[in-house]
Amino acid sequence: MPPLTWLRAFESSARHLSFTRAAAELNLTQSAVSQHVRSLEAFLGRDLFVRKTRALELTEDGANYLPSLREAFDLIATSTQAFVGADRGANLTLQCNMAFSVFWLAPRLKRLYAKHPWLVLNIVTPIWDPERHAASASVEIRFGRPEEMSAAAVCLATDQCFPVCSPDYQDGRPDLATATLFDCAGTTATWSTWFKSQGLDFLRDGDVNLSSTYVIAISAALQSGGLSMAHNTLAGDLLDAGALVKPFAHSAPLAEAYFLFPPASHAVTPASDAFLNWINDEFQRAQS
After folding, report:
1. Distance of CA 11 to CAs 4, 45, 66, 245, Å?
2. Longest dimension (CA), the chain
3. Beta bridge partners of 50
4. Cβ proximity of 19 and 37 under 8 Å
5. Does the CA dihedral 26-92-126-166 come out positive or negative?
6. What are phi and psi of 269, to 5 degrees?
7. What is the distance between the alpha carbons of residues 47 and 52, in angstroms, rounded to a whole number?
8. What's the pLDDT at 27?
9. Which residues, other chains included, contact 54 with Cβ-Cβ below 8 Å and sequence gap of 6+?
10. Which of 50, 183, 204, 279 has a 20 to 30 A CA-CA distance from 143?
11. Which is nearest to 95 in space by CA: 123, 129, 121?
12. Which residues fall within 8 angstroms of residue 112, CB to CB, at 6 or more apart?
């Protein structure tokens, strides 16, 4: 039997008659979908598509193979639904980074459950290897550069980066030459980037405390431990509440952004629909 990934790539490509649209549905790259289909064709020893310049067309073999494959997928879906029970539609596995879940999502969960009290969330927060768990998540929110995202990604927010601290740190007038500096490793929104965006040299490169998540860096700033680099999505609520302040007016463009990966069309549930509509409303409200 050929691998399930090959079969899913063929079924989706045949339904859309497009590798690009299949890639968006399956949260894969176009080249990955194309390669899966070629591998399936090699396994079967038959061409399943006629590849034209801007379109796909099923061969006779492909058209004959597709109905039985769809019937098999439908049988798997029906059997799985019977096994897990009808309440599966209320459960949602959400993957997002730790800082987003702590500083943006958690403060808004009250609003989410007020609107959808039946919803049950399982929040997964990997730090270094999001790809490891992404396949098992119903919905994913990822922080990264646009060029790293697949066609399925929907941009939720583009931010600016800037230093933050508690209102009482160094009496609210921190000295960049002596302040304790915090940052999150693995992002482009560094102290050096912020200085360079002003045409200035950063002379303390080896003197910045790094953490693997903004949760630590921003929490240190909240506890008057020093200055932390931050950005709008994570620090916005804390700035509005007065728990943090921006001691310097300058902000630099953030190369990364927050992207939403919705489920493939065959995996949509009442829970995923409700959550996607809610989070889009929340970000639209913030931007209006």
Report:
1. 10, 17, 7, 52
2. 76
3. 57
4. yes
5. positive
6. -130, 165
7. 13
8. 84
9. none
10. 204
11. 123
12. 119, 275, 278
- Check residue 128 and give its pLDDT: 56
* HEC secondary structure over the chain: CCCHHHHHHHHHHHHHCCHHHHHHHHCCCHHHHHHHHHHHHHHHCCCCEEECCCCEEECHHHHHHHHHHHHHHHHHHHHHHHHHCHHHHHEEEEECCHHHHHHHHHHHHHHHHHHCCCCEEEEECCCCCHHHHHCCCCEEEEEECHHHCCCCCEEEEEEEEEEEECCCHHHHCCCCCCCCEEEECCCCCCHHHHHHCCCCCCCCHHHEEEECCHHHHHHHHHCCCCEEEEEHHHHHHHHHHCCCECCCCCCEEEEEEEEEECCCHHHCCHHHHHHHHHHHHHHHHHHC
Residue 127: predicted pLDDT:
62
Residue 58's identity, in one-letter code, is: L
* Positive or negative: CA dihedral 164, 167, 171, 173: positive
Residue 185 token pair: 């490793």
pLDDT averaged per 10 residues in sequence order, the chain, 288 residues: 92 91 88 94 94 88 92 80 61 92 96 94 75 68 90 91 96 90 92 95 90 95 97 96 96 95 84 93 84
Q: For position 263, what pLDDT does the model report?
A: 87
pTM reported for the whole predicted model:
0.69
The 10 Å Cβ neighbour count of residue 267 is 14
What is the distance between the alpha carbons of residues 226 and 143, in angstroms, rounded to a whole number? 24
Distance from C-alpha of 225 to C-alpha of 173, rounded to nearest angstrom: 14
First to last CA, the chain: 52
Residue 20 amino acid letter: T
Nearest CA to 249 out of 178, 199, 284, 198 is that of 198
